Amino acid sequence: MRKEITIEGMKCEGCANTVKQRFLEVEGVNEAVINLETKSALIQGDVPVNETALRESLAGTNYSVVGIKELDA
User: Fold this and answer.
1) What is residue 7's three-state secondary structure?
2) Fold of 2-70
3) In terms of Cα–Cα distance, which of 37, 44, 35, 43 is closest to 17?
4) 19-48 pLDDT, tens digit each
5) Angle at alpha carbon of residue 40, lines to 38 and 16, rounded to 5°
6) C-beta atoms surrounding 24 within 10 Å
């Protein structure tokens, strides 16, 4: 399972690291690669990941998920 996530609010490497750590705490996420330039994240896992959990993982931060795209058919 792979998803591309568009994130609002990231401005620096510190922001990207925070988002990465939050996504890695979501059940099922094995890898999170953050692209600060495109304001996106590519996450990967062995099982389906709950999109609500991804959105909620950024609660209490200055970042928010504005889009999620499934990359695997």
Assistant:
1) strand
2) Alpha-Beta Plaits (3.30.70)
3) 35
4) 999 999 999 999 999 999 999 999 999 898
5) 95
6) 13
- Rounded to an integer, the average pLDDT of 5-28 is 97
Domain positions in the chain are 2-70
DSSP percent split of the chain into helix, strand, coil, nearest 5: 25, 35, 40
Q: And the tokens for 34?
A: 């953050």
Helix extents (H) in 1-73: 13-24, 51-56
| pLDDT number for residue 32 | 98
CA distance 70 to 1: 8
